[in-house]
Amino acid sequence: QKEVEQDPGPLSVPEGAIVSLNCTYSNSAFQYFMWYRQYSRKGPELLMYTYSSGNKEDGRFTAQVDKSSKYISLFIRDSQPSDSATYLCAPAGGSYIPTFGRGTSLIVHP
Amino acid sequence: DGGITQSPKYLFRKEGQNVTLSCEQNLNHDAMYWYRQDPGQGLRLIYYSQIVNDFQKGDIAEGYSVSREKKESFPLTVTSAQKNPTAFYLCASSAPIPSPLHFGNGTRLTVT
Prior knowledge:
Chain A is mostly beta strands. Chain A is built from no helices and 10 strands. Chain A has a 5-stranded antiparallel sheet with strand order 1-3-8-7-6, with no helix packed on it. In chain A, strands 2-10-9-4-5 form a 5-stranded mixed sheet, with no helix packed on it. In chain A, a hairpin with a 4-residue loop joins β7 and β8. The radius of gyration of chain A is 13 Å and the shape is globular. The mean pLDDT of chain A is 93. By secondary structure, chain B is mainly β. Helices cover 0% and strands 50% of the residues of chain B. In chain B, the strands form 2 sheets. In chain B, strands 2, 4, 5, 6, 9, 10 and 11 form a 7-stranded mixed sheet that branches. In chain B, strands 1-3-8-7 form a 4-stranded antiparallel sheet, with no helix packed on it. The radius of gyration of chain B is 13 Å and the shape is globular. The model of chain B has no long low-confidence stretch (mean pLDDT 94). Chains A and B meet through β4, β5 and β9 of A and β4, β5, β9 and β10 of B.
């Protein structure tokens, strides 16, 4: 079992839809949870950074962590074509550097 | 304007040649990293360094070498021993582990 699992997609949605991106992990030592967005031919950029279980909201983006089930979600409200990118989850903790999932490709069509 | 600079953006080399990828940061971060990204495979860690003059192998270090002589710089050499070097290489930096990583915009290396 890989440490971090993500469905690679692609996930295709119409503009304005609510998007749910998910990630599971196996290492119970992870306490910090990051989501990165990567546009084609660019480096990943940090989108959300949360600690422990719970929700964190930033504009149209909400990150949700359930440590009991080792499940991480990123919700995007009112999705826009500019949200089309690959989304990578990256849990970390203790002496562990962030471990990246393979990413989910999102396509938002007008 | 703080950030990470990777150069060049595109690099072409003949098989059998060593090539060095540059990475410079002005974020005053102690830790720096090199990742390789292939289509459909996500980010794979090559090397990382938590402090000057010290570095550790990642998951796929074979065929690569690094140095960390200055806090700002972490060059990666892709040697002729790397069997499949064509890939997108990403450099990152962070405050002490396990802080979030900040990435450069990558170097696309093509070896023919």
